[in-house]
Amino acid sequence: MGVRLMVVDDHRLLAEALASALKLRGHRVLAAAAPSAGAADLVVSRAPEVCLLGTASPAEPGVFDPVVQIKKERPQVAVVVLGPVPSPRGIAAAFAAGASGYVRHDERIEGVERAMMKARAGEAAVAPQLLQGAFAELLNPAAQPDDEGARLLRMLTPREVEVLVRVAEGEDTRLIAAGMGIAPSTARTHVQRVLMKLGVGSRLEAAALAARTGLLDRAASRRLASPAPQPPSLQPPSPKPPASSAP
């Protein structure tokens, strides 16, 4: 089934060429536009399933502000960033803003299409080697905690906090289940509850939010502050009184 999408890029010609190629592959392109002050508003008004957002400078401050606005007003829209070979910090910034994927400008049309489909399904649409670097950046301990992190932490149960930490470490459902000694279906339910409580649509967005707000640092501190359960003290059995001998 085709994806309902919009293409937004610095170069209108590139946006229109990409839109035409995707139309030929059976997708419904609502608009192809160049970024401007109203680009995010246009995406919000059209409400596509996926927005392909091109940028030439992923490290430039404020470049992902449109992503923040789109996700704030239309959280169901999956944003996939199209950009140059990025630094981990650039990808981390994109996901922290709410993007669902990052695709290099030199990717083939099949790669762009796969990223669109994964993003629409709520999955992270980024090459594994780029994802690894982004996670390292997102989990940088230099992230500044704020009051939002404390508020989010209060929303989660201790078990959900453990699930979130494991998600942020890149564990899939199978590894989470094995590490916590629970069934995969139970682990999947815990993950979905964490995503719902945090108000995000994917595991990567949850990890980005947790790192950006300092939630992970706070979670680690809370776990360290919680006293470990002490084993019950072993008392030697009381000696039985000697049986009285009959006269």
- State the secondary-structure class: alpha/beta
**Strand order across the largest sheet:** 2-1-3-4-5
Looking at the overall shape, the CATH architecture of the largest domain is: 3-Layer(aba) Sandwich
Tell me the distance between the termini.
96 Å
Number of helices: 12
Number of domains: 2
What fold name stands as the CATH topology of the largest domain? Rossmann fold
Helix fraction bin: 40-55%
Instruction: Report the β-strand fraction as a percent range.
Output: 5-15%
Number of strands: 5
Arithmetic mean of pLDDT:
80
Poorly predicted runs are 141-146, 227-235
Elements, N to C (H/E): EHEHEHEHEHHHHHHHH
Quick description:
GO terms for molecular function: DNA binding. This protein has helices at residues 12-24, 39-46, 65-73, 88-97, 109-120, 128-138, 147-155, 158-168, 173-180, 184-198, 203-213, 215-225; strands at residues 4-8, 28-33, 50-54, 78-83, 101-104.
